[in-house]
Design brief:
By secondary structure, the protein is of the alpha/beta class. It contains 12 helices and 11 strands. The strands form 4 sheets. Strands 3-4-5-9 form a 4-stranded parallel sheet, with helices on both faces. Bound molecules: nicotinamide-adenine-dinucleotide.
Length: 319
């Protein structure tokens, strides 16, 4: 869509990084504003000045382990921020609001799959905040007729991911010769989807989804955490002595398994394209190649103090 313009609002929190956008920002059709989605004046000012028609909300506090330590900022962004965006959509009569949510809102499932009509039963402070945002949307659809669509994505991997989520956290530590903290026996099952497939699913739902509907965006690609870790060890040339089994700091909140059907979005003509194992190996190669991108991120005081506060007692000298 060559005539489409993109306007980005991002608070540039510890997880936000303008370097990631440098190529995109060189395109005259892309404009960037720093700011928070909770700031109604900023949000409404941008919608008005730029004549926005479609709003896609990726912004979130998104790291489960950080939410175990402090969940207030999650509620500010993931619940109140969504409310502000919805109010702005209402005021400016936008054509579509797409909200990027997560399969974690369903909670854990031992067998079978969640579908879009499964109940929402979040178990972690992060997933509860994302579920809170979704409930604001449900109410805005019912009460105000907001033309909203929700996507629930699976665990996402790929380049440019802040090195705190399992895959980039582990890759960067293994490159540096540090042990990786695996919760319990690593038997938790996650469905992994490459960021390009996740983004493609979101775009497909934006363009072809129906108002008021929710769409799962997944790759039907279940892996135990330990299977993923073993591929990362292989690709970084490390052996199993680099695994440090630690007690699960999320206690009863750590979901055992995520799994969801994607037929609803598949029926609209979308399907993921990236094979898991080779794409994961490519991701490791990207992190080896782009140390200029992630080294400054892991050198900040915020990053060091998070790793120390959350994993320090278990990782000891490997911090
Ligand atoms: N990473 C995953 O595995 C995954 C899976 C499913 C869904 N999601 C969802 O996808 C979205 C993006 O995930 P991610 O892993 O890239 O997250 P991330 O934490 O790496 O990045 C979040 C981005 O949002 C920005 N941001 C945070 N608070 C903000 C605020 N108040 N106002 C404006 N901008 C703000 C940050 O600066 C950053 O650029 C999130 O909504 C997340 O819930 C992620």
């Amino acid at each position: 869509m060559p005539e489409t313009r993109i306007v980005i609002l991002d608070a540039l929190t510890y997880a936000g990084n303008l370097t990631t956008l440098s190529e995109d920002l060189a395109d005259p059709r892309v404009r960037f504003y720093p700011g928070k989605i909770q700031d109604a004046t900023v949000v409404e000012g941008i919608l008005k000045a730029e004549g926005v028609t479609h709003l896609v909300n990726f912004a979130a506090e998104s790291h489960n382990d950080r939410a175990m330590m402090e969940a207030g900022s999650f509620i500010q962004t993931d619940v109140y921020g969504v409310y502000v965006l919805l109010e702005a959509c209402r005021k400016f009569k936008l054509s579509r609001f797409l909200h990027v949510s997560t399969d974690e809102v369903y909670g854990s499932i031992d067998q079978g799959d969640f579908s879009e009509s499964s109940p929402i039963e979040p178990n972690t402070p992060y997933s509860a905040s994302k579920a809170g945002g979704e409930l604001q949307i449900r109410a805005a659809i019912k009460a105000h007729g907001i033309p909203a669509v929700v996507t629930r994505g699976g665990n996402t991997y790929g380049p440019y991911h802040f090195p705190e989520k399992l895959i980039p956290f582990f890759i960067t530590r293994l490159i540096d010769g540090k042990r990786v903290p695996v919760y319990g026996d690593g038997s938790q099952v996650r469905e992994w989807i490459h960021c390009e497939d996740h983004a493609g699913g979101i775009l497909h739902a934006l363009l072809h989804g129906k108002d008021g509907e929710t769409y799962n965006v997944g790759d039907r690609n279940e892996r135990r955490n330990m299977e993923v870790v073993k591929i990362l060890l292989e690709e970084t040339g490390r052996d199993e002595s680099f695994i440090k089994a630690i007690p699960d700091p999320r206690r009863g909140a750590h979901d055992k398994r995520y799994s969801m059907t994607t037929e609803k979005l598949n029926a609209l003509g979308w399907s993921p394209q990236k094979p898991f194992e080779s794409s994961l190996r490519e991701t490791v190669a990207w992190y080896k190649e782009r140390q200029d991108w992630w080294r400054p991120l892991v050198a900040t005081d915020d990053y060091r103090s998070f790793v120390e506060a959350f994993y320090g007692p278990s990782l000891g000298e490997d911090l």
